Amino acid sequence: MDDMTDDLNGAISASGLVEKARQAVPFLRERADEANALRRPPEDVRAFMKASGFSRLWMPRRYGGAEGRLRAGSDMLRELAHGCGSTAWITVQNALHNLMLANWPAEAQEDVWGRTPDVLVSGILIPGIGKATKVEGGYRLSGRWPFVSGVEVADWVIFTGDCTGADGKAEELHFVVPKDEIEVLDTWYTIGLKASSSQDVKVNDVFVPEHRTVTDAALKGGATSPAAARYEGACYKVPPYSIFGCFIGSAALGIAEAAVDHYIANARKRAATMAGGTSIASYTTQQVKVAEAQSAVLAARQLIYSVLDEAERLATSGTPTTEEDRTRFRALAAYANKLAAAAGATVLEAGGGGVIYERNPVARCISDLTVTNRHITQNWDVNASTYGRALLGLPIENPMLQD
Length: 403
Prior knowledge:
Blueprint: H1 14-38, H2 43-52, H3 70-83, H4 85-101, H5 106-113, E1 121-123, E2 130-135, E3 138-148, E4 156-164, E5 170-178, E6 183-185, E7 199-209, E8 213-215, H6 226-230, H7 240-273, H8 284-317, H9 323-351, H10 361-372, H11 380-391
Helix pairs in contact: 1-3, 3-4, 3-7, 4-7, 7-8, 7-9, 7-10, 8-9, 9-10, 9-11
């Protein structure tokens, strides 16, 4: 039994997952070139992801998960991103979708987790794309969704689709579907996160049984959520949509931290080998840029921690979150991303001509950050405007953050 498990009951531990992620950095860096060429994790990386149990951080203990603390998720994802940004990005999806699945009916959880806890769950939550039709025993689901990160290494996939009732009103539902019932389209040719396998996916009239479907209400979290009623972990009482950006942002932050670390290590090496001469590191402007970049990632980390700690404190105390709380959590996560992005830009500027080469690890980090910054949870204008509306007493438009 290794350091990831508890000697008393064999359950996976959050602290063990963070340490396992830290130990994985050299392996992931070694496999990164092949992963980028394949545009997905190589098979040995996929096997490692499953065996290591990163996706099980917020899986219920009943099924072999950790029911871990929120901050552990940020630490685990940042460490993985130091090794490979794409692997961290996929792991965000795997861990968060397992967190969401805790709100599905018990029969669905048995379908997904019952035989083995090491399943990888991908998904996409863009509303209004999928279409579902009610039939006896469940639904028929069709649609095409972009950006389904990690889909080629997944075992199950979550989709969002609208079902129009007899009254003509559309209800947004969420469906979990086995990987072998979907079609993966080869669309992921990008400038960054190349190995994240964020392909388009097509579903053509697939039957989804009733028990593998939930409404928006089931996924809004809080003390009355299905998962909170069933499991003990504080992670199930936190409104998930309010903190998704912290974990997506943690993967992005880990990439930015890696860029800063790579740059500092290289600058120190060049300074040592140029003893007696003038090195770039000797210029005050370089010293200021390095300090600025490092300060930015450290500040971003503390900002994400503060959100996760407050969200967990409220959940543990039984204090309901308000619309202002939830929109603030989203906005602060997006602001942390602004800091991480700024750190990457500072390192890029400081690096001069050397960072334009693909062989420079900083170049890969910058390319990956360019893509992570496009995620809706990392968009400052979108999330700041929603928070601003809440602060001004105006109605907010995101239904998953509303009371």
